[in-house]
Amino acid sequence: MLFILIAVFAVLGIVFRQSHLRFREAAAAEGKSSEALTGKAYSSWLRRRTGAIFKKETIKKTLNIFGNWTTGHYPGWTKWIFIGLTASFLYLAASGFFFALFIPRGMFGVPLLAHVGFGGLFAVSLAAAMIWRARAYRWDEPEAAAHEGFASPIFKKLSKTSLRKILFWAFAVFGLVQIVTTLGTMLPVFTFETQQVMSTIHRYSALAIILTAIVFIDITFISQRRS
Prior knowledge:
It contains seven helices and no strands. It has one domain: Fumarate Reductase Cytochrome B subunit, CATH 1.20.950.20. It is an all-alpha fold. Helices cover 75% and strands 0% of the residues. α3 crosses α7. It has helices at 2-29, 39-52, 56-73, 79-102, 109-133, 160-186, 192-225.
């Protein structure tokens, strides 16, 4: 029950945080004053944005942005690395949290077998993505201009470039934790109590990697959709 509460509030919190940043950006672009940034204005903006997601023009623009980014970062055959990583991550996240939130018994049957299979694909794809893309997220690379207040109210001078690097390596670390804890619960080398601890770590690491992916997607794709 504790994990369910933490997961729900964490996801809702990060979605609110990022959507409110988009709301402030839209208000600033329209020349609105800070007095106009009310809760009612935000709610109205959020309803319009949510409705626009399903419009043909929005879907087309989003797919173009996604396609251009994928082609630029994963050209040729390397696109299969990204496809494998994305497909496996989406299934693992959806199935894992569905059963964690709504099925007290936990995962079982065909969904569990598919979860294990996609877990193997995720491990291979993550390793390939690290080999292919890690050099692009080196800390000695030049950074873009600061994006004030984007990552957190404390680190106001953290740039989008730095934030992407943090998110990339966080995704990699949490992904490794996912792989190690999965193997730990499957191999008969640990006690039952240790496997229970690993299962708990696996759940919270899954939550962390989903939050990381949400922010990365927001600053990489959704922010560009406004331009």
